[in-house]
Amino acid sequence: MPREQNILVVLPSWIGDTIMSQSLLFELKKIYPDCNIDVIARSYIKELIELIPEINKKYYLDIDHGKFGLRDRLNLASTLKLNNYTRAYILSNSLKSSIVPWLVKIPSRIGYSTELRGIFLTESYKYKKHERTMVERYLYLIDKKYTVDIKPRLNITQQHKDKASKKFEINLSKKIIMLCPDAEYGSAKKWPLEHWVTLANLFSEKDFNVYFLGKDEAINNYLENNYHNHNIKSLIGKTSLLEVVYLLSLANLTISNDSGLMHIAGAVNSKIIAIYGSSSPFYTPPLISGNDGEVVYKGLSCSPCFKRECPLSHLNCLRSISSEEILNISLNYL
User: Fold this and answer.
1) Which string of b and e fits 75-97 if b means at least 16 CB within 10 Å?
2) What is the spatial distance between Cα 194 and Cα 323, in angstroms, rounded to a whole number?
3) pLDDT at res. 2
4) Which of 57, 59, 127, 187 could form a disulfide with 38 if both were Cys (CB 3.0 to 4.6 A apart)?
5) What is the pLDDT of residue 1?
6) Which residues contact 217 (CB under 8 A, 6 or more apart)?
7) Cα–Cα distance measured from residue 241 to residue 164, given in angstroms and rounded to the nearest whole number
């Protein structure tokens, strides 16, 4: 077995990408069983990475977009030098994300040669956009392939699940459907709100308990004016990230756009119906096996476009997916 190592990982900024990066951490622990894995992350995902058991120390670096933040980077590098890292994996694509490991003078600095940052890396890999799934892209850095055995798994407890169900008055006597209509990346990833409301009402008519999750509180105005059923409740904007994780772990089924919550649901063993429009289920698929859910994707000639907003202003890639279709697919997993 390779000797014990101290490894630094610069995590991605997006929630979903961070979840998918756990596969890399899991494999590193198999290769170097006695290693310590520390991470640099954005503080807004602090609660999330506390649930990743492979991580030892966590360091947070918050620098506004467009700012270099040299002093903050130098201060962090000064702290990290004390840890004697033997290697670093830079999972974010930005040039700036590779600077701290370079300042620390970590002997092996591994990542993709995006944004001309090859000078800061000792091992750089060429990056062809969307050539591999995101998980495969991370694992490629250590010459591994994705298998179900390294599916991300967050470390949650029954005590915290019970606390969340009590706080938010989750009715555990019926099957629970969690609906996630938000997508931080942009509107081109969002299944239309009217479809979400119709779907919620269809589930309610079948006596399921339906909960909406997310953080965009503007969605609530539309939801509350279009459903009037005691089986439907919106928790959008009313939870912390940690509470969302525990709530998703209670779900019999999660239905979501391609978003961070979709990937969290997979990491807490919820079954998933994932709705894709502008993004690709071949690049950032939910990490589920065949019995745990499925992807709904029309694959129109204009998709995936990977745009934040529909460049053709019709959003047909998502509008063409009906609420009835999602309901019928969902019933196969309930």
Assistant:
1) ebbeebeebebbbbbbbbbeebb
2) 9
3) 53
4) 57
5) 45
6) 236, 237
7) 12
Residue 39: C-alpha distances to residues 109, 201, 264 (Å): 14, 43, 19
Burial of 314 (0-12, 13-18, 19+ CB in 10 A): exposed
pLDDT of residue 289: 76
Ordered mean pLDDT values, 10 residues apiece, the chain (334 residues): 79 94 94 95 95 97 87 96 96 94 97 90 86 90 80 90 95 96 92 95 94 92 79 94 96 96 95 96 85 94 94 95 98 96
**What pLDDT shows up at residue 46?**
95
Tokens of 294: 């499925």
**pTM, rounded to two decimals:** 0.92
Domain boundaries, the chain: 6-150, 158-333
Level-2 CATH architecture, domain 158-333: 3-Layer(aba) Sandwich (3.40)
Counting other chains too, the contacts that 268-277 makes at CB distance below 8 Å and 24 or more residues apart are 268/154, 268/156, 269/153, 270/178, 271/333, 273/326, 273/329, 273/330, 273/333, 275/191, 275/318, 275/321, 275/326, 276/304, 276/317, 277/188, 277/189, 277/190, 277/191, 277/303, 277/304, 277/315, 277/317, 277/318
6-150 and 158-333 have identical folds: yes
Q: How far is CA 67 from CA 2, 28, 109, 177, 330, in A?
A: 39, 32, 23, 41, 45
* Backbone φ, ψ for residue 81 (5° rounding): -60, -25
- 100, 93, 97: which is closest to 137 by C-alpha? 93
Q: By C-alpha distance, which of 259, 265, 209 is closest to 235?
A: 209
Residue-level pLDDT at 224: 79
Q: Which of 326, 200, 180 is nearest to 261 (CA)?
A: 180
Q: Which CATH superfamily groups domain 6-150?
A: Glycogen Phosphorylase B; (3.40.50.2000)
